[in-house]
Write a structure and sequence with these properties.
Helix content is 18%, strand content 32%. Strands 1-2-3-6-7 form a five-stranded antiparallel β-sheet. Strands 4-5-8 form a three-stranded antiparallel β-sheet.
């Protein structure tokens, strides 16, 4: 699958609300493969949303299994039409984004989340995620609603340039 160019802020397509996936055919499987390859080609990517490559569909890919942050996780998740069923607790954590390169900020996110979604075949699934994986899932769902992590940054230091960039 060809790696796609990742859109960067302030591209207006990153601010659009994505359309639901309504038909589950070969194109959905292919789109998930493109998202996976594009995520893996990026620096330290653990998640990606279709809008980040200019595709206005409610599709995300999350894979924390090779993260430098060890965490309990579900491995590779291909999620269409993800919906937050419940969210509990709150933790402040450092986030960055492939669409906002070279910047990080402290963002509050739920410590635990239950999410329902359609898999590649259109079958509804539900998982619970905690810690870093919950943060990544919530970050990617935000992309589907046109929200970037920089919109959620809270801290006296705010948004800062990454030291390793």
């Amino acid at each position: 699958m060809p790696v796609q160019t990742i859109l960067t802020n302030p591209d207006a397509r990153l601010r659009a609300v994505s359309a639901a996936v309504t038909a589950y055919d070969e194109s959905v499987i292919q789109q998930f493969l493109v998202l996976q390859e594009t995520m893996r080609a990026g620096p330290g990517g653990v998640g990606i949303a279709a809008p980040q490559i200019g595709v206005n569909r409610r599709m995300i890919v999350v894979d924390c299994s090779e993260s430098l942050r060890p965490c309990k996780n579900h491995g590779l998740l291909n999620m269409a039409n993800p919906h937050i069923v419940s969210a509990n607790g709150e933790r402040l954590g450092r986030e960055g984004c492939l669409s906002v390169p070279d910047w990080v900020g402290m963002v509050p996110r739920a410590a635990e989340v239950c999410v329902s979604f359609d898999d590649e075949a259109g079958q509804r699934q539900q998982i619970s995620a905690v810690g870093f994986e919950a943060r990544v899932i919530l970050h990617e769902i935000d992309h589907l609603d046109g929200v970037l992590f920089i919109d959620r940054v809270v801290s006296s230091k705010g948004l800062v340039r990454r030291m390793d960039a």
